[in-house]
Amino acid sequence: MNWRFLSTVILLAAAALTGWAWWSQRNKPAATAKQSRPDYVLTDFNVVVLNKEGRESFTLRAPQLTRNPADKTMDIVTPLFLIPPRTGGNGGPWEVRSQRGWVNGEGDEVRLRGQVKADSTNANGKPINIATEQLNVFPDTNRATSDVQVQMIQPGTILTGQAMEADLDSKNINLKDVKVRYEAKAR
Known about the structure:
mainly beta
């Protein structure tokens, strides 16, 4: 047998063994929070969430909610949030809808995305309608923000702004870079 052939076979075998050892000992990526399996899934549910004082913070209705066990966040499909007025608040409750929702692990921030609609009434019972693509709601402080275009409709007036800060109790809504359109009332 040729010694060159034998040494080539031994070197190839050693290279293959080294490659296999290196491959099997590599660091495998850890599962990220997005990749982990939900620890529970709710379907067609209605839940009332209480604040730290034991009063209703909001009610949530949706066809599906999944909770991530790693960071305790929740993803929600087509949520409907009902946010009651606080004691002494102006007007009726808020009904807030969107295509998707996300709640942080502490439950004090809700991010709504896709065709967000928020409806309520002011102290005089007149409707307030807000439409945007993104809305962040902070239930503990009853406020909402948006960094994208927002349209607010009240009887006879349509306001369009590029960002929003809102106090949900007082119904005080601040829009930036506002354009106003007045519409005559129907008789």
